[in-house]
Amino acid sequence: MAQSKLPGPLCRFLGALEIDAGTLCRQASPLPGVVNHAHQPTQHRRRKRHQQAKSAKVPARAAGTSKTSSSEAAAQQLKAAKVFAPAATSKISPAEFEAAAQQLGGGIPVALLRAFAEVESGGKSGFGPMGLPVIAYEGHWFRKFTHKVYDVTHPFLSYPYVKKAGPEWVHNNKDQVTAWKTLEEALALNHDAALKSCSWGMFQVMGFNYASCGYKTVDDFVAAMKAGEAGQLLAFVGFCKANPACLEAMRKKDFKGMAIGYNGPDYGDYDKRIEKAYKKYGGT
User: From CA 133, how far away is CA 118, in angstroms rounded?
Assistant: First the structure.
């Protein structure tokens, strides 16, 4: 499938982050006038005038702060641009599935890894029509990471959890173009929180799991999600190894335990779908 270009809002997003450093600068206020008393200033008044002079210089030093803010904004632009940069969309090879199963150990078969890949990706690729990783934006996680500050101003980006795939979720994730536009809007509010609040790739690992998957930052995790489906498989392996209960359920072929360990208690029929896919790939 030919890769389509990212929708126009990305350009507007990057432009919106431009900051005019001059608007953040403040010139030093003039030194307050000295009252012309008939007698000489006392030592107390001299100290007061000295303190006033020091205070008057503070806004001038703030000009350096505006430069730092501008630099930070430029850095945020660069980080956001990397998120939307083209990805390597290579497929997982049979040998890579075998290597991943060996890393998990305990006799976990390749068929089980393939089952997770199929169920989480809907039987499709780990990449969408734009050549970017498949994502699903979860606004209740964004709400948590941003301490509810966007609940009123951005109710479709920040909302409480009511049920799995509620109306906000459907609105944000009706297709991959919409999901990435939603992420773009969230990135403009809080970069790290936005990336943490999406599930990524063929195995739909949540971004907030970046550390347990073995990555230093959530941006490193996203870079791995873009490094082909093999990178997404490695993140899945890291997640499973960091979750002993889920890993043990996989070893025992306990599909309900897998569903809870991987998708939480509100897992629906996830256990049945994993079991069905497992048998499809030759699992017994």
Answer: 15
Q: H-helix or E-strand containing 199?
A: strand 198-200
pTM for the predicted model, two decimal places:
0.74
Q: Is the dihedral of CA 133, 137, 142, 145 positive or negative?
A: negative
> Which is nearest to 136 in space by CA: 263, 282, 273, 22?
263
Question: What is the H or E stretch that residue 80 is in?
Answer: helix 43-84
Which distant-in-sequence residues (6+ apart) come within 8 Å of 6 by Cβ? 84, 130, 132, 180
Collapsed DSSP state (helix, strand, coil) of residue 1: coil
pLDDT in tens, 161-213: 998 889 999 999 999 999 999 999 999 999 999 999 999 999 999 999 999 99
Copy the structure tokens of residue 279.
């048998």
Residue 167 CA to its chain's centroid (Å): 21
What band does 30 get if pLDDT is binned at 50, 70 and 90?
very low
